[in-house]
Amino acid sequence: LAVGAIPEGLPAAVTVTLAIGVGRMARRRAIIRRLAAVETLGSTTVICSDKTGTLTENAMTVRALYCAGWRYVVDGHGYNPEGTIHLDGAPATIEAALRESLVAGALCNDASLAKAGQHWTITGDPTEAALLVAARKGGLDEHTLRALFPRQDELPFDANRQFMATAHRSDNEQIIYLKGALERLLPRCREQLDGSGRPGQLDAAAVEAVAVAYAEQGLRVLLLARRIFPANSPLTADALDGLCLIGLVGMIDPPRKAAISAIRNCHSAGIRVKMITGDHAITALAIARQIGLVAEKALTGRELAALDEAALTQAAHEVDVFARVEPEQKLRLVRALQSRGEVVAMTGDGVNDAPALKQANIGIAMGLGGTEVAKEAAAMVLTDDNFASIEAAVEEGRGVWDNLVKFITWTLPTNFGEGLVIVAAIVFGSTLPITPLQILWINMTTAVLLGMPLAFEPIEPGIMRRPPRRLDMPVLDGALIRRIVLVSFLLLAGAFGLFLRELGLGHSLAEARTVAVNVFVMVEMLYLFNCRSLTRSFWRVGLFTNLWVWGGVVIMLLLQLLLTYLPFLNAVFQTAPIGWRQWLEIVAFAWFASLVIALEKYWTVHRSST
Description:
Layout: H1 2-5, H2 10-27, E1 30-32, H3 36-41, E2 46-50, E3 61-67, E4 70-74, E5 85-87, E6 90-91, H4 96-107, E7 112-116, E8 119-123, H5 126-137, H6 142-148, E9 151-155, E10 163-170, E11 173-180, H7 182-185, E12 189-193, E13 199-201, H8 204-216, E14 220-230, E15 243-252, H9 257-268, E16 272-276, H10 281-290, E17 299-300, H11 301-305, H12 309-318, E18 321-323, H13 327-338, E19 344-348, H14 354-359, E20 362-366, H15 372-377, E21 380-382, H16 387-427, H17 436-451, H18 478-504, H19 509-531, H20 538-541, H21 547-565, H22 567-573, H23 580-609
Parallel strand pairs: 2-16, 2-19, 12-15, 16-18, 17-18, 19-20, 20-21
Antiparallel strand pairs: 1-21, 3-4, 3-15, 4-5, 5-6, 7-8, 9-10, 10-11, 11-14, 12-13, 14-15
C-alpha cells in the first residue's frame, strides 16, 4: 500500500520541469539563478521597472540645447557623431555659451566613444556618451579638450547629490564643471552665461519654463554649470555654490517597441507595470504615456520621503510612475506593495539596488549594465536588459506552472488507483491484483516515459490573458481533485474487475496480474493525452505539437510487450504472456475510461464558462 500510494517520481519530475523552464527562459534572454523563481514568476502581479535601457533603447541622443536664452536643435541619431546643431533652421555658430555647454558636457564626463568598423560604440554611461556625441557634432573633440584642460579632481555622480563635478586646470585658475539634475543645481546658480559668453543675470523662471517644455516632450534634462576657483583649490560639494549656469541639455532615449507590446501583454495578463526612474517627473510621465502606461501623475522621491507607511502603501498601489527615486526608496516601495499581497518583480543594476532586489519576490538584475552585487542579489538576470524579456519570462513561468499541474493531475490517479486496488483486495479478501514489484515497475517507467514529456508541453494560447495565480492558491482546485478521484476509481474498476474476470475464466494468477498491470499502463497512456491540456480536448491541442509524448508512448508500449512476453522479465515480475482477447479488453476499457474523462472535462469547462 505504501509503495502504491507514494508518488516516487514526483520530486524528480518537479525539479526536471522547473529545469526545463530555466532552459526555455535562457533562450528568451532571462537567466534564472534560483530554481523556485520559475514558479513564482507565473504569480507576478506587479513589475517595477527602471526606465533607461529596460523600457527604452538605452541609446541616448541629445536633441536640444538651451544657452543664453536661445533654443538650439540637434539632429542625428544614436552614437554616430554625424549631425548638425541648428538655430532657427540654420546651422548654429559654435561660440560663446553654446561652445561652453559642449565643452562642459565633454569634460565633466567619464565615457568614451570609438568607431568599430561601420558602427560607433561607447564605454561608460549612455547619458555621458550622448554629450560626447553632441560635442563632436559641434566640432569639438573630447580628447583635445581633455589635453587642453586636464582633470585635477572630481566628485563622481551620487544618487543623493544628483550631480557630478570635475575640476580642470586652465592657466592660473581652476574651472569646476558640473552636470546634473536641474532641481539640485539651479538653486546653487547665481548667474548665467549671456550671448557673449560672459556671466550675466540669471532668469531662473525662464530656465525652469524651458526645462518643463523639454520634459513634456519626453526629453531628459540636464543642467550644466561652472565655477572658477584659484588654482589647486580643494573640490568639495559644500563649496559648490554661487555657480554660473551654462545651459540645459535635452536628450531622448526612445522607447523600445518590444517594451510597448510587452506592457500591453502584461496589462492583459492582469499585471501592473510601474516605472521607476531618476528622471524629472514630467519627463517620466511623457515617456510613460509613450510606452502605454496610463498615468495621471508621478510621485517624486522627495514626496515619497514625506509619506508615512500607510500613505506610502496607498501611493504605491495607486501610482504607476515614480521619478527622482533614490535606491533605498525602491526597498520601501517593494515592501509597501508586498504588504497589500502583491507579488513583486523589481529591476535594478546598481550596488544600492541590491536590498530592493533581495526583498522583491523576483529580483531582476541587468546583465549588460548591472553590477556583480546586483546580479548576486537577484533571482533572475536579463542578458539584454530588455523589459520584453521580463514579460517573456513571466509567460514561461506560467507555462511551467501549467505543466507542473498537468503532471500532478496525471500522476496522482495512478497512485490513488493502486492504493484503492490494494485496499479493495484486502476488504474483499482477494489475492492482490498487483504485487509491490509490479507497482514499482508501473510508477518508475510511466513517470519517466509518460509523465516527463508533459514538461515539454508548449505554452497554451491565451496564457497571458489569464489573471495571475495567487500564491496561496492550492495546486489542485476542486475540479482537478474531482478528476483525480474519477480516474482513480476508473483504474480500480478496470484493473480489479478484469483481474477477477481472468481468474473467473480459469487463467493463472500471473496472467490475471499481467492484465491488471497493462490496464494501469494503457489507461495512463490515454489519460496522458487528456492531461496535455486541463481545459481543451486533446485534438484541439494538436496531436503532434509535442513529439516527446509520442516517443514516450512508443517506448512504453515496447516495454510493456517485453514485460508481458520476455521470459526473463516474466520470472522477475511474476507476469505471463496473454492473448489477443485480453489485449482487446484492456484497450477497450482504456478507451472507455478516456471517453468518460473527456466528457467530465467538457462538462467542467462548460459549467465554469457559464
